[in-house]
Design goal:
Shape: globular
Largest sheet: 3 strands, antiparallel
Strand order of the largest sheet: 2-3-4
Structural class: mainly alpha
Oligomer: single chain
């Protein structure tokens, strides 16, 4: 891990420019996501509410709140977030516990993942990702103790799995391991923890009939074409229909209630159907550029807390993107993980945009060598 030597660097806090490349990538993905939601959700929105733009209008509100969070975080000195790490983590753990209480948590499609606050439905697991990154960055910038890290990681993952939400649990675990390694922890511990995590994941999968069915469907999509395999078969049909250049924007057939979760977890399939293989590759390239930029900001951060915070945020976004896209192209079983910036969902969009604003703030305070 790099050692910081104040005598050889200067920090231009007031004169450093924001990373406009990162800002353009974040806002570009968000705007494209709004356009795709307006397109992909028309069938479901008209069926349920008689308004084809119902979900688009809601997402536009969430994007507005996310933009406020993005702007505020980009001007808020990230070092002051250290003092919020513990309160935010406690709030996250409490909300994860509350969502499991009958009558408080709301169940949708068999998963109890939401708390309803007035007219707003909030997903505590999304807050847990950000809170975990905050706390790890603050804790690991001072210590590298294994047991406190393992206890917190196990507690968070346990609460998330009880919802059940294995996809988010994997994102939290993978992000935690990357931050732990970036803090300077021995590589051998990373390997051992990775093996233990893999074995634990296998145990969780085969201890649940629902998860086991997901894996069997993944291994053989033809085994139950009108039941468990229906979703992945419709995704693959959408991908195949798009061909090289797509059917054209707005021309998807699968969005008309053939493809489940067309505006949420499966939105990339609708995108590929309309903009084709070439267009889908461009979107993947944009995500890769975003991830590269995030790690560049982490490398140039002026202190260890900034490095670990940026590493955690961009790892979270990267792993979430990887899991969503891998499920869409049938590399892993479907997990219900949304595509960052693009899938419909207020909790995810607001928190990811706010986290991206923190990256912008860190970029404005990068190390400058004399």
């Amino acid at each position: 891990m790099r050692k910081f030597k104040p005598s050889k660097i200067s920090l231009k806090l007031s004169h450093q420019k924001a990373d406009w490349f990162l800002i353009i990538l974040v806002l570009g993905l968000t705007i494209f996501g709004l356009l795709m939601i307006a397109n992909a959700s028309v069938g479901e929105a008209y069926r349920d509410f008689g308004d084809k733009l119902y979900y688009f209008k809601l997402q536009l509100q969430w994007a507005g709140l996310g933009l406020i969070g993005f702007i505020f975080a980009s001007f808020f000195n990230y070092r002051r977030l250290k003092s919020l790490a513990v309160p935010l983590l406690i709030a996250s753990l409490i909300s994860l516990g509350l969502v499991l209480v009958p009558g408080l948590g709301t169940k949708v499609m068999g998963a109890q993942r939401w708390l309803v606050v007035g007219a707003f439905r909030f997903q505590p697991a999304e807050l847990a990702k950000l809170a975990f990154v905050f706390y790890l960055a603050a804790f690991m910038s001072q210590k590298k103790s294994l047991w406190p890290f393992l206890i917190l990681l196990t507690l968070l993952i346990g609460l998330v799995i009880l919802e059940p939400d294995l996809g988010t649990a994997v994102i939290i675990a993978a992000t935690g391991l990357v931050v732990y390694f970036a803090s300077g922890a021995p590589l051998i511990w990373l390997g051992l923890l990775g093996i233990l995590g893999f074995l634990a994941g296998l145990g969780l999968i085969f201890s649940s009939a629902y998860r086991k069915e997901r894996v069997l469907t993944f291994l053989d999509p033809s085994r139950d074409p009108l039941g468990a395999s229906y979703h992945i078969r419709q995704i693959l049909l959408a991908l195949g229909s798009g061909g090289l250049f797509g059917l054209g924007l707005g021309q998807s057939r699968q969005k008309y209630e053939y493809l489940p979760a067309a505006a949420t977890d499966s939105i990339f399939a609708i995108m590929a159907e309309e903009i084709g293989f070439v267009g889908a590759l461009v979107i993947i390239l944009v995500f890769l550029l975003l991830i590269w930029r995030g790690f560049k900001i982490a490398k140039e951060a002026p202190d260890k807390f900034g490095t670990l915070l940026a590493t955690g945020i961009i790892s979270w976004i990267g792993f979430q993107t990887l899991i969503n896209l891998s499920a869409i192209v049938a590399l892993v079983p479907l997990t219900g993980v949304p595509l960052p910036f693009i899938s419909y969902g207020g909790s995810s969009l607001i928190l990811i945009m706010t986290a991206s604003g923190i990256l912008v703030n860190i970029s404005k305070q990068k190390v400058v060598k004399k």
